[in-house]
Amino acid sequence: MFFKQLSTYIHEHDTIIIHRHTNPDPDALGSQLGLAGIITENFKDKHVYCVGRDIDSLAFMGQMDQIDDSCYKNALVIVTDTANTPRIDDKRFTLGKTLVKIDHHPDIEPYGDISYVDTKASSTSEMITQWVYEERLMITSETARHLYAGIVGDTGRFLYESTSRKTMQLASFLRNYDFSATDIQYAMITQSIQTAKLSGYVLQHLKYTKQGVAYIVLSQKLLTKYGLSDEDTAGIVSLPGTIENVCCWGIFVEQPSGKYRCRLRSKGPAINSIAQEHDGGGHPLASGANAQHLDEVKIIISKLKKAAEHYQK
Ligand code: AMP
Predict the structure, then answer these.
(1) What residue owns the CA closest to ligand 1's atom 12?
(2) How far does residue 233's CA lie from ligand 1's centre (Å)?
(3) What is the pTM of this model?
(4) Quick check: CB of 236 below 6 Å from ligand 1?
(5) Rounded mean pLDDT of 136-142?
């Protein structure tokens, strides 16, 4: 039903502009670039653009387009993988004629003329792949690569519980196309020497609580010492989850403004309500928040401890 309406919208608009969230991950980019490929290949004579800031560490995914504000006149704007409007990268998403949301995060802010939210889907890329699969749409190997990378990214290479039978079926369908899944996996796990050194630091200095919470605060001074930026911390976020008895964890990254980006993860208790209480949100087991100062970081850590303490398997 949703994709039928989306197809109608696409037919009715000459220009389609696709946005996704700030600080993109492979699913944000994969769903965005994958959808752009699907529209280009299946709908004739459309101008399709992907916008947002390019991220060096995800350059293997593809490049964004640079477009003028005038392109938004009468355009269809589709936002993928983004729960709420403040998180949409490139604020011009309001300039189009029609707005559509496609996402798999909890629907904390419904927006758009139509929206499709499936919190059971492992990734937004999986939701879009299902459209291709069911409608037998044409896609190139590059589009299949984008969608596959999105699924691989958000499932932690098929590790997380969100990986369902359907996820595997759709990923398997994408593997019919000619791209190297191994190259994608390596691109995702390959880190710079500086990030590898930061991993060493994290493993050495991670703090553990008796409730099974692990946490670390990374200061600007430390990031500068390692020659890293906030974006580079993506490579170390999953590390604490590989350590015994750790059930949930937080990586708190000081920003140049003095505030802290909080990257929260869990293998058990839901932590997204904690993120929501601190200017953030996300999935039950993978969320992000913002803390104004170290005292707020400490409050978040104590909430993680409480969540871990009350969690029953
Ligand atoms: P991150 O730690 O940035 O990799 O984010 C983990 C998950 O939480 C992703 O699904 C993000 O989309 C979501 N998320 C991160 N930061 C925020 C935020 N400030 N508001 C809402 N959702 C967020």
Answers:
(1) 282
(2) 13
(3) 0.92
(4) no
(5) 98
Q: Is the pLDDT of residue 105 over 90?
A: yes
Distances (CA, A) of 171 to 40, 143, 184: 21, 13, 13
Indicate the Cα dihedral angle 56, 61, 65, 69, nearest 10°: -90
- Could you identify the residue written with the tokens 């101008």? 47
Give the number of other Cβ atoms within 10 Å of residue 195's Cβ.
Answer: 19
- Write out pLDDT tens, residues 49-74: 999 999 988 999 999 999 999 999 99
Q: Which of 19, 31, 81, 87 to mutate to test the pocket of ligand 1 (most atoms within 8 A of CB)?
A: 87
- In the chain, residues under CATH classification 3.10.310.30 are 195-312
Q: Which CATH architecture has domain 2-188?
A: Alpha-Beta Complex (3.90)
pLDDT in tens, 20-33: 999 999 999 999 99
Q: Model confidence over 282-303: pLDDT tens digits? A: 999 999 999 999 999 999 999 9
| Nearest CA among 295, 226, 286 for reference residue 251 | 286
CATH 3.90.1640.10 residue spans of the chain: 2-188
Please report, to the nearest 10 degrees, the dihedral formed by the alpha carbons of residues 288, 289, 293, 298 taken in order: -70
CATH architecture of 195-312: Roll (3.10)
**CA neighbor of 83 nearest in space, from 110, 61, 53, 54:** 110
Q: How far is CA 224 from the centre of its chain?
A: 25
